[in-house]
Write a structure and sequence with these properties.
The protein is of the alpha/beta class. It contains five helices and seven strands.
Amino acid sequence: MNAPRAIRILGIDPGSRTTGFGIIDLVGRESVYVASGCIKTIKNDELAGRIGIIVQHIGEIIDAYRPNHAAVEQVFVNANPASTLMLGQARGAAVAALVLRALPVYEYTALQVKQAVVGRGKAAKEQVQHMVVQMLKLSGTPQADAADGLAVALTHALRFQGLAGRLGASGIKGGRLQN
């Protein structure tokens, strides 16, 4: 009998200053840690410079780890419109980098991520970090932004498992539902 084929998922928590990423392999029903980290932009750099760093480093991550799927956290609107706009542009840069590498991109709200990983939509960052450590059986706690990237990847893994189970493994091809 053949071993289940792993699906490699790149999760991204976009930010204009720090973009967290996490990579996991989904093997059958088990999520296995591969890598995580943060892309840090240059403090006080203009927006174009920050976007360039995000696109370049996401491209390098894709080249190094060869994910099959990408999941990105959606932007939330906060009290500061300028911050929301900057975050949206950083997120757009991340999505563009993924699309340019022909990866299927899935999007999840912060509420969906927290519900999937912690079980509560109003969970604190520390609770998300703790559950990421537990779910992936990590020996240490990743930095908050990296843990958020892993949480996005885990959310996609859980959603993908549920969808594949309902449709049968042949129902999804290239990130798209097949009739």
